[in-house]
Design a protein that fits this description.
With about 425 residues, the protein is of the alpha+beta class. The chain contains nine helices and 22 strands. Helix 5 packs across helix 6.
């Protein structure tokens, strides 16, 4: 390899583009301890993993009895899967101890049942064994997490760093992330969405794309009620989140103590307005049917309103707003790679602010609507009886923006940054 150009450092690079030139060595045949394999095809490569795990799905009678007892009152297949998945999450811990052959070969399901821990392939093996014990077919699927790039489908080889489970049903397939303690059945972290996974079936192996959640499934919806007092904004809010947005909050708060939680929430909600003081908060993780993770919070933004002594300048885009930092630094003519975000999403903020009675409205922004193939943006304003009503919606429809789409994305983002600066001007009587 000669004359390799220097790597480009662009904003919002996809994981595969972060490594812009790579050289891969793929053995045509190999042996792991006493387990031979080859890379002639994905079927052939799957035979290697199938041989590694062939005797690992047997459960002791005690385990089988417990599993059947758990699902005895469930008649629906999906309900049975849900019960056993919750059981897996509750009873087991993710622990990775991978020395020698254990880096490739899973522990037996019996070991996981006894020890109550395992790495991704151990826990996936145990999940497959539990489902098989009640007559539900399920298979391990080797995967490469999104932060490491993409599997090259044209080069059968070990390109994986993770293992999940695929359950083929009559009209759909259910994917299970067995290392997570909080994902719901069929929901996966963004890092294993929209990627090739090698499903190791009974006789063959298939590269199958995992599903990706739509923007409306990665929801943030806040309701804010606030009052203005001496330039400060006192507020209460309920924030409903779903999908990957929910996982983001869960991940950052489930492992923290209350002090760390407050620091995280202060950074999250104080990005547009500093001087945030959180007085109290509460988390409510609803049942799976509700799909919502609810954050209730009370706080104060001190020095919220700029003033010239006569006028107050109020921007109600409190939680979510596009700023110059959201615009890629590369102008349209200079961009060389696609733009990548972790996932598409939908943010909606509804704000109700009570303004002081001795102020009247002098100027207000106009309602806005932008809707194209990449972004939907909408704002609605109203002020009546000293009550300011504001709704802002931002939807990123696609998380992978091609070079052909980049001009539209760049110009739309640039325009929204300006629109998000819009202020109400309130004049003192």
């Amino acid at each position: 390899m000669e004359k390799i150009p220097a790597s480009l450092d662009e904003d919002y690079l996809s994981p595969e583009d972060e490594t812009q030139t790579a050289l891969y060595f793929v053995p045509q045949s190999f042996t792991t301890d006493n387990y031979p394999g080859n890379t002639e095809s994905w079927d052939a490569f799957s035979n290697w993993y199938r041989s590694l795990a062939a005797d690992r799905y047997t459960l002791p009678n005690e385990a089988k009895k417990e599993i059947k007892e758990l699902v005895k009152d469930a008649s629906d297949v999906k309900e049975k899967i849900k019960i056993l998945y919750k059981y897996l999450q509750k009873k087991n811990r993710y622990v990775a101890i991978e020395m020698g052959l254990a880096g490739w070969q899973p522990q037996s399901a019996a070991q996981v049942y006894t020890n109550r821990y395992g790495d991704c392939k151990d826990l996936s093996t145990f999940m497959v064994a539990m489902l098989n014990a009640i007559g539900i077919r399920a298979y391990p699927a080797l995967a490469l997490t999104k932060n490491k790039g993409n599997v090259n489908p044209d080069e059968p080889s070990y390109q994986f760093n993770h293992c999940i489970v695929m359950v083929p049903l009559e009209n759909e397939s259910i994917w299970l992330e067995c290392t997570s303690t909080y994902d719901d059945m069929g929901e996966m972290n963004y890092n294993i969405e929209d990627m090739y996974a090698l499903v190791v079936g009974e006789k063959n192996g298939s590269l199958i794309k995992t599903p990706q959640k739509k923007s409306y499934q990665n929801k943030w919806h806040s309701n804010i009620d606030a009052t203005i007092a001496l330039g400060d904004l006192n507020f209460s809010t309920r924030i409903f989140v779903e999908g990957n947005t929910r996982d983001y909050l869960r991940y950052n708060m489930a492992r923290s103590n209350s002090k760390d939680d407050v620091l995280f929430l202060t950074d999250l909600l104080g990005e547009n307005y500093s001087n945030l003081n959180i007085e109290k908060y509460n988390l409510s993780d609803q049942e799976i049917e509700e799909q919502d993770f609810v954050l209730t919070l009370n706080g104060t933004y001190t020095k919220f309103l700029p003033s010239d002594g006569i006028r107050l300048f109020l921007n109600p885009s409190i939680f979510n707003r596009k700023t110059p930092e959201d615009l890629p630094k590369e102008e349209v003519s200079k961009r060389k790679y696609p733009v990548y975000f972790s996932y598409p999403y939908l943010n909606t903020d509804t704000v109700n602010i009570t303004v002081p009675k001795n102020y009247t409205l002098e100027a207000k922004p106009t309602n806005q609507l932008i809707d194209n193939d990449l972004i939907n943006y909408k704002t609605e304003y109203d002020l009546k009886n000293n009550k300011l009503f504001f709704v802002r919606t931002f939807e990123l429809k696609k998380n992978y923006i091609t070079l052909q789409e980049y001009p539209l994305f760049y110009e739309t983002t640039k325009k929204i940054i300006e629109l998000d600066k819009a202020k109400f001007v309130l004049k003192k009587n």
